[in-house]
Amino acid sequence: MRILVVEDEPTLAAQLAEALAAAGYVVDTAANGVDAHHLGATEPFDAVVLDLGLPGLDGLTVLRKWRAAGHAMPVLILTARDGWHEKVAGIDAGADDYLAKPFHMEELLARLRALIRRAGGHASAELVCGPLTLDTRSGRVSVDGRALALTSHEYRVLAYLMHHQGEVVSRSDLIEHIYAQDHDRDSNTVEVFVARLRKKLPDGMIETVRGLGYRLAGRP
Ligand code: CA
Q1: What is the pLDDT of residue 80?
Q2: pLDDT digits (tens, 9 = 90+) for 91-104
Q3: What integer best gives the mean pLDDT of the chain?
Q4: pLDDT computed for residue 220 by the predictor
Q5: Ligand 1: centre distance to CA 70 (Å)
Q6: pTM, to two decimals
Q7: How far is the CA of 68 from the centre of ligand 1 (A)?
Q8: From 3.40.718.10, 1.10.3720.10, 3.10.300.10, 3.40.50.2300, which CATH number describes the 2-119 domain?
Q9: How far apart are CA 220 and CA 18, in angstroms?
Q10: Residue 36 CA, ligand 1 centroid: distance in Å
Q11: Cα(109)–Cα(200) distance, rounded to whole angstroms?
């Protein structure tokens, strides 16, 4: 799953990027409202962490512009500690959740997990597909209760498929959600990751839908 972090304070931006990467997400960052607006309008993100006080274009304006253009990705805003009016304005502008600064990284991660699973229609932090379980809190994947060792790229591919189980996911969808924008994207590597995943999963779980992409099937 791919997250956009919009924060102009370099130390906090770096901490956020590091914590999110450690949690298994792909992270793009923007340090001003203009870049943030452009990225959010042109790249598919599974969630956005949006600071409101930004140079160039303030966060509320960025959010309103996204929503006016129909971009519906979950957005968590970062507000000032006593900024209750900011929270109200942010939610009215289309934010899905907020956190006041300073915050604990664990709380931010928990709120993001909740936003992403709600956006996908999942009620629980544990995603289940047939014999396969992915715990979005710990990043643990298991088959029939046995832990599965995955590389970070295999995990990203599987997490995206698990969030979209039963749906056909194209190679380009996968590429856009497992790599950040500045990464050298190569669609062949997706096939390599899928082939490796297939060796680790029960036979038939990842179906190839000819000409369209892949589908994670609950019952092979
Ligand atoms: Ca700021």
Answers
A1: 84
A2: 999 999 999 999 99
A3: 94
A4: 44
A5: 25
A6: 0.90
A7: 23
A8: 3.40.50.2300
A9: 37
A10: 13
A11: 28
